From TrEMBL:
Pfam families: SH3BGR (PF04908)
Family to which the UniProt record says this protein belongs: Belongs to the SH3BGR family.
Cellular component terms (Gene Ontology): cytoplasm; nucleus
Basic and acidic residues: compositionally biased ranges: 105-122
Protein's name in the database: SH3 domain-binding glutamic acid-rich protein
Length: 135
């Protein structure tokens, strides 16, 4: 699976350039494989991006601005949703990727399954609520 980041390399907007740099920089820093696709110099890329951003995610004028993020053909989101996922520490699920082994996301996923099983066991044994919180 390849993460695709649609950018405009010749954008006149400083805000758009900063958003693009933040997305690309984060992916590079976290060693997440991605492909940068320029919509400014490639009409096919621009057309594909505009056609594949879901209608409810498009701005009122109907033209989505970069950066737009996809996992292969699956739409992930725009900069705002990327930023929210990053802040909530759920970037791997946002990108549709499994967290790398040993990362907080992978540990939480493993602990989540164990905690659910433990909670079920604790409730059956009639343990007081304080005991459940400690587990």
């Amino acid at each position: 699976m390849v993460i695709k980041v649609f950018v405009a390399t010749s954008s006149g907007s400083i805000a758009i350039r900063k958003k693009q740099q933040e997305v690309v920089g984060f992916l590079e820093a976290n060693k997440i494989d991605f492909k940068e696709l320029d919509i400014a110099g490639d009409e096919d890329n621009r057309k594909w991006m505009r056609e594949n951003v879901p209608g409810e995610k498009k701005p009122q004028n109907g033209i989505p601005l970069p950066p737009q993020i996809f996992n292969e053909e699956q739409y992930c989101g725009d900069f705002d949703s990327f930023f929210s996922a990053k802040e909530e520490n759920i970037i791997y699920s946002f990108l549709g990727l499994a967290p790398p082994p040993g990362s907080k996301g992978a540990e939480k996923a493993e602990e989540g399954g164990e905690n659910e099983a433990q909670k079920g066991g604790d409730e059956d044994s009639g343990s007081p609520p304080e005991t459940q919180e400690k587990n």
